[in-house]
Specification:
Elements (H helix, E strand, L loop, with lengths): L1 H12 L10 E5 L4 H12 L4 E6 L2 H11 L4 E5 L5 H15 L4 E4 L16 H28 L5 E5 L12 H21 L5 E7 L5 H7 L3 H8 L12 H12 L10 E4 L7
Parallel strand pairs: 1-2, 1-4, 2-3, 4-5, 5-6, 6-7
Length: 271
């Protein structure tokens, strides 16, 4: 009861630009794309520390410095390695005293347009190591410290519109995002008793540095090619649109929302 009153008082003292006042967050894959946009938004909304975790060291440090090292820090972490994930979480809690938000966002795209008939399982295993194993490790270790410290935290995972649809190509990627949705639905049921919310955000195809490299195209070209996947016209999906959805799931605006897949898809159209 005392904790509930404290959270209500915190909300009363937060204005619309401080939805994460006093919170500590980890964002994996935070050096670019959706992760970077979310890190900047979290800092803008009063998070006392945003820990960016990535394997792009130089880029990650640049993002942290541009946000401000008093509010953002960078740590190297390969999410497919459990020891690195565990260390990342424990270091964050040790340095900043708490962990309120885990945005498990790190992921990779399929290296080729694989179908079931020509699956390359070496590429398949690497993709699952990051997109599935890495996602589960981040949820596991974030949840453990939240439970230990009686924190009513928020865990958000990056899924995809591919989590709810079959695909004619990129079978491995589609499978991995279905697994993320299953993880969120199971974890939300298991962690609800501790007051921990678990949700995911599912963006439509959008142009990021990752997708541009994967397709060997410029940003404008990739954006143009993705326009056909949405029925909502006149708006180009950007990482900031997804970050806004993550902010909603991370803050108290979604206090009674868990196990939910928040689609940011512009009315996804299957071709």
């Amino acid at each position: 009861m005392q904790m509930l009153r404290k959270r209500q008082q915190m909300r009363q003292h937060c204005d619309l630009r401080n939805k994460l006042q006093g919170r500590v967050a980890i964002i994996t894959g935070g050096a670019s794309g959706i992760g970077e946009a979310t890190a900047r938004l979290f800092a803008d909304h009063g998070a006392i520390m945003v820990m960016i975790a990535d394997i792009q060291d130089e880029l990650g440090r640049q993002v942290a410095e541009s946000i401000g090292t008093h509010r953002c820090s960078y740590v190297h972490c390969d999410v497919s390695d459990e020891e690195q994930v565990k260390t990342m979480v424990e270091t964050t809690v040790h340095k900043y005293g708490q962990l309120d938000i885990m945005f498990s966002n790190a992921g990779i795209v399929s290296g080729s347009d694989q179908t079931v008939l020509d699956l390359d399982f070496s590429a398949f295993d690497r993709l699952f190591d990051v997109n599935v194993r890495g996602m589960a490790l981040c949820v596991k270790h974030a949840a453990r410290v939240m439970v230990e410290r009686s924190v009513r935290g928020s865990i958000v995972c990056t899924a995809s519109v591919a989590a709810n649809h079959g695909m004619e190509i990129r079978t491995d990627y589609c499978m991995s995002k279905h697994a993320v949705l299953g993880l969120v639905r199971s974890a939300s049921r298991q962690l609800g008793v501790h007051g921990i919310r678990v949700n995911c955000v599912s963006p439509n195809a959008l142009a990021t540095q990752l997708t541009c490299r994967a397709r060997g195209m410029e940003m404008g070209e990739v954006q143009k090619s993705y326009e056909k996947f949405a029925c909502l016209k006149g708006v180009v999906l950007t990482p900031r649109h997804v970050a806004d959805a993550v902010l909603f799931l991370a803050c108290d605006d979604s206090e009674f929302v868990t196990g939910h897949d928040t689609v940011v898809d512009g009315g996804f159209v299957r071709q």
